[in-house]
Amino acid sequence: MRILLVEDDVKLGFLIEYKLKHEGHQVDWAKNSEEAECLFAAEAYDLYILDWMIPGKTGLELCKERRKQKDSTAILMLTARDAVEDRVKGLVDGADDYLVKPFAFEELFARMTALDRRKQTSGYEESCTSHSLKLNLQTQEASRDGSMIYLTKREFQLLSFLMRNPDQVLSRERILNYVWGTEADVTLNAVDATVKLLRKKIDDPYTNKVIQSVHGRGYRFSDSGAVSHD
């Protein structure tokens, strides 16, 4: 995911940025509302992570402004405020989720995955297309160079996740969380096994291999031509 982090605490901001990049995300970090507003105008993001109390406008004020401008990007609020009325206010004013400091990064990643899954299953997108591959997200049908390919539910979920994040390295842990969710008995070996089966169907018969292994980090989807979402 392409993420905008708005956090004025330098130590915490550095740690969040490091952890997110380690998981394969692209991160821009703003330390105040002025920097954030410049990035809002200049870039497109999949997720905003906004600290409530920052110099200038508060994170909540930024959240309200994004919604007034019809920005539908997912927003995760970070704050030390743990009162019910504060959480309710954040959600009412446009935040999609709320995480109280201090927090475990496992919980941050889980909430990000849930927001990503919610967006990608909302029915807004009908298809995901690269240079040679096309996925129909409504019927869960796949084709490459016009030839239909049968994929299991897991294979389709994994491929669509990779295609929605083209040229980004997705860690095995992130893939596991997205595709299998909270299934307790599933290990990282399931990711490798599913990738192997998927490759047999969409890569082995073709010269151009679209699923790439990045040693020690995870997997990446790369196909010539941009990936579009319709």
Describe this entry's structure for a reader.
- The chain is α/β, with parallel strands linked by helices and 230 residues long.
- The chain has 2 domains: 119 residues, Response regulator (Rossmann fold, 3-Layer(aba) Sandwich); 103 residues, Winged helix-like DNA-binding domain superfamily/Winged helix DNA-binding domain (Arc Repressor Mutant, subunit A), CATH 1.10.10.
- The strands form 3 sheets. Strands 2-1-3-4-5 form a 5-stranded parallel beta sheet, sandwiched between helices. The chain has a 5-stranded antiparallel beta sheet with strand order 9-8-7-6-12, covered by helices on one side.
- The model has no long low-confidence stretch (mean pLDDT 86).
Write the topology of this structure.
Blueprint: E1 2-6, H1 10-22, E2 26-30, H2 33-42, E3 47-51, H3 59-68, E4 74-79, H4 84-92, E5 97-100, H5 105-120, E6 127-129, E7 133-136, E8 141-144, E9 147-149, H6 153-163, H7 172-180, H8 188-202, E10 211-214, E11 218-221, E12 228-229
Parallel strand pairs: 1-2, 1-3, 3-4, 4-5
Antiparallel strand pairs: 6-7, 6-12, 7-8, 8-9, 10-11
